[in-house]
Amino acid sequence: MNPILLTLAFTLGADPDWKAEETKHLTNITQLTKDFVRAGEGYFSPDGKKIIYQAEEKGTGNPFYQIFVQDLATGRFDRMTPGKGRSTCAYFHPSKHRIIFASSHDDPNAEKVQVAEIIQREEDAKAGRRRRYQWDFDPHMKIYEADLNGDNRICLTPDAKAYTAEGSFSADGKKIVYSSGNAGDVQIYTMDADGKNAKAITTAKNCYNGGPFFSPDGTKVIFRSDRKEKDRLQLYVVNADGTGEKALTDNDKWVYWAPYWYKDGKHIIYTGADHSDETARPNYDLYWMNIETGKATRITFAPGQDVLPVFSPDCTKLMWTSNRDGRSPTQLYSADFAVPK
Fold this sequence. Notes:
With 341 residues, the chain is mainly beta. Helix content is 7%, strand content 40%. It has two helices and 24 strands. The radius of gyration is 19 Å and the shape is globular.
């Protein structure tokens, strides 16, 4: 759930006491994934015993993410998606043994797109080029439902003619909130869990609205949008019926994204970085916010990027995507979480 046109990079030379700073809120930090080229955007199963995430496999000929479910006790993981095309934005159903994810595997040119990406990466490596991060609003991306082993796959958005992804369930499992549209004009929708009764709940045009999640009680949706300035994402909250929209951040020198609810529905965890210096690479960290007062607390301080935070079902653990040292490929990490006072 990360379609933003910006560099997810790092700033070396972090505060030498950054590890001590992090222990205020994070303890027992553990790397959860390691057997992939890169991995990230993970979510906990309803019982907290498994995680679902996107990762690039080694040696498959597909440079794009696929979806995996991993058992936290044993570390065993299994691929849920066909292995072709792009896959992203997976989420567990809160009660049924089902998952949803977005994928372009039904694109008739999926394999050609994979080959083109591999060639581009090889050319970039030879030229010493580092491409600017860019999310592809693939028009073949649709939302699918499947069993926990990836079987009995059903497309929930078969008629979608534009990018359709970033889906997640309401706590009762009856609704899905997601993003859909063409690059430069993506809106947030809700639909029934079976794909029926789709309804747009954002209306700001010529911008990206995405990364939505229902509040724990299902009455609100939190999301990000670059409606004020292209690529400069800010955080918003709106009632689940599309009314009462409110901006939670309003600083065009910063980029804020990946908001996720805490269990009380009054706080969120999110990613943010200062973009005021156009010559410097922004350092992304995790922040905690009281959405009623706007008070924010910084959670991570590592020299690498820390992004896409989520809570375990009981909110005692935090999981996020990171290259903690600022040099390694991104992987998933978890830690015991202490609520800021």
